[in-house]
Amino acid sequence: MLPISKQKSLDSPPPAVVPQRPTVYLDININKKNAGRLVIQLFADIVPLTAENFRELCTGEKGVGMGGEVLHYKGAKFGVVQDTFIQGGELTHNYGESIYGWRFGDENFIAKHDRPGILSMAHTAGENTNSSLFRISTVKQER
């Protein structure tokens, strides 16, 4: 809540507090040439475990995972799937690993792919199988 001196009047409610959302980036190279930087704001207030997993995979701060592979998106390949989303993040030969171990559970389904640019983790084998794989929508998803 803002101090009284910052409010317009005592009758008006204070402005809504917007949670701070971490921002990460991926530098994109195509055919070994810089194609730009993808800046991503993480919904840590909605899916904190998922956001932290993605953030640490971007920074590489977790180090080496259970399978002996470096847990870092640096050098990971992307692909476009059916012109509806970009998928990436396969860090190992078995669809990757999360910072929490091989897989971690779904947190919720509040945020939808209702516009281009929405990030989510990609399931590897059904529900509750999140790892390092991720998707970014390129169009509005109908489901």
UniProtKB/TrEMBL annotation:
GO BP term, example: protein folding
Catalytic activity annotation: [protein]-peptidylproline (omega=180) = [protein]-peptidylproline (omega=0)
Enzyme class: isomerase
Gene3D superfamilies the record matches: Cyclophilin-like
Isomerase among keywords: yes
One Pfam family hit: Pro_isomerase
Assigned EC number: 5.2.1.8
One annotated GO molecular function: cyclosporin A binding
Domain named PPIase cyclophilin-type: residues: 25-143
Family, per entry: Belongs to the cyclophilin-type PPIase family.
Function of the protein: PPIases accelerate the folding of proteins. It catalyzes the cis-trans isomerization of proline imidic peptide bonds in oligopeptides.
Name of this protein: Peptidyl-prolyl cis-trans isomerase
Source organism per UniProt: Plectus sambesii
Top-level taxonomy: Eukaryota, Metazoa, Ecdysozoa, Nematoda, Chromadorea
